[in-house]
Design goal:
Length: 370
């Protein structure tokens, strides 16, 4: 089965043309936010758009198959045209080569893919067994065979319980160019990255456009590996970016250096801890390197998890401007009920990060009401 032809989107069969599916999702979004201005709509390419993917693997009758796991069943996948082209090229050859090695196929239960638009691919093989020297030798042969058959730079990681074996790099390089500037990133295997690089580029450009002419300093919560931090830093005097995931903080430091960004300070704090720090509730040793009183925060940028801002919505009310990127319209609506008490919406946009699914990414700019 083709993995892009699953499920229901906006109540319509996925046999509908992509543009109609997107129109249905946008209509649903507009009905949910009927009191707001009509959003700007940014479409995705209809195929070859996904840079991250995870598949279960089943071994039956001497054959390996990719599958997607539903509630009570497994659906075998023969092709996946939503993947970036380098991943599509590897999709079938990888399984064929794995089948030729009993050592590599034995107790393999999953494969994760990460790619970039620069033909770099990172594959992670997941096992229910210890990876020994024999596995390593066969993995090296697999990697060599793949590099001879496809036009991509390929790295491979083997993961088992308390084990990680790396052949090549732990990341892929990605870049985005807009407004005559290029931004470079390392996307790590175990860190969160946006799955659709084309939609991501649209979000970055939109966020920067809303920040043009901004005054004061920027506080960013949930900054991850610096996806938004790096291009937004051009529009502010100083930036304080917070994150709690160690691998993301490592990538953030490397990405700041890659782009020669000098005006960003990093703090390993949760959103609620950052609120407490600004309110002088208690001191944080993790902020010892930051001269917090020197910041003149005017803008808050947030790209929270699906649960939304929650208790931090009230904290956000103190900022003059709020840039909010959301992956969940329902929690965005709940947070806007709080933010609307002090702010009004200046701009709204939706981005089709996940074509052929009901999900729709959105972004909103709010300014404090007079």
């Amino acid at each position: 089965m083709d993995c892009s032809l699953r499920g229901i989107c906006g109540g319509c069969s996925l046999r509908l043309p992509y543009r109609q599916q997107l129109a249905n999702k946008v209509q649903h979004f507009c009905e949910l936010f009927s009191e707001l201005p009509k959003p700007s709509v940014f479409a995705s390419p209809p195929s070859a758009f996904r840079a991250r993917a995870e598949f279960r693997v089943v071994f039956e009758n001497g054959k390996l198959s990719y599958c997607l796991c539903g509630k009570d069943k497994k659906i075998k996948i023969s092709s996946c045209p939503i993947l970036l082209q380098p991943l599509q090229q590897l999709f079938s050859p990888l399984l064929a080569l794995l089948e030729q090695s009993e050592i590599l196929a034995h107790k393999l239960f999953g494969i994760e893919f990460l790619a970039s638009t620069h033909n770099e691919v990172l594959m992670t093989l997941l096992y229910h067994k210890k990876l020994d020297d024999s596995w390593l030798a066969h993995a090296q042969n697999l990697l060599f065979a793949l590099t001879q058959s496809v036009d991509s730079t390929i790295s491979l990681i083997g993961r088992a319980r308390k084990q990680k074996v790396v052949l090549g790099a732990c990341f892929v390089h990605e870049s985005f160019t807009f407004a005559k500037r290029r931004y470079d990133y390392r996307h790590y295997e175990s860190a969160f990255t946006q799955p659709n690089p084309f939609a991501n580029a649209q979000m970055l450009e939109w966020a920067c456009a809303q920040s043009a002419g901004a005054e004061g300093d920027l506080l960013e919560l949930y900054c991850g590996l610096g996806n938004f931090t790096i291009p937004l830093s051009r529009h502010f005097e100083k930036v304080l970016a917070t994150e709690i995931a160690k691998i993301s903080l490592q990538a953030l430091g490397e990405n700041l250096a890659l782009n020669d960004v000098q005006n960003v300070q990093i703090a390993r704090l949760s959103a609620l801890e950052m609120r407490d720090a600004l309110d002088n509730v208690r001191p944080f040793r993790r902020l010892a390197h930051v001269d917090l009183p020197s910041y003149r925060f005017e803008t808050l940028f947030v790209d929270p998890p699906r649960a939304g801002l929650g208790d931090c919505a009230a904290f956000a009310q103190r900022f003059s401007r709020i840039l909010y990127v959301s992956c969940n319209p329902m929690t965005l609506r709940k947070d806007l009920e709080t933010l609307a008490q002090t702010h009004h919406v200046q701009a709204l946009a939706v981005f089709d990060q996940f074509p052929y699914t009901p999900h729709l990414e959105s972004a909103v700019l709010l300014s404090k009401s007079a």
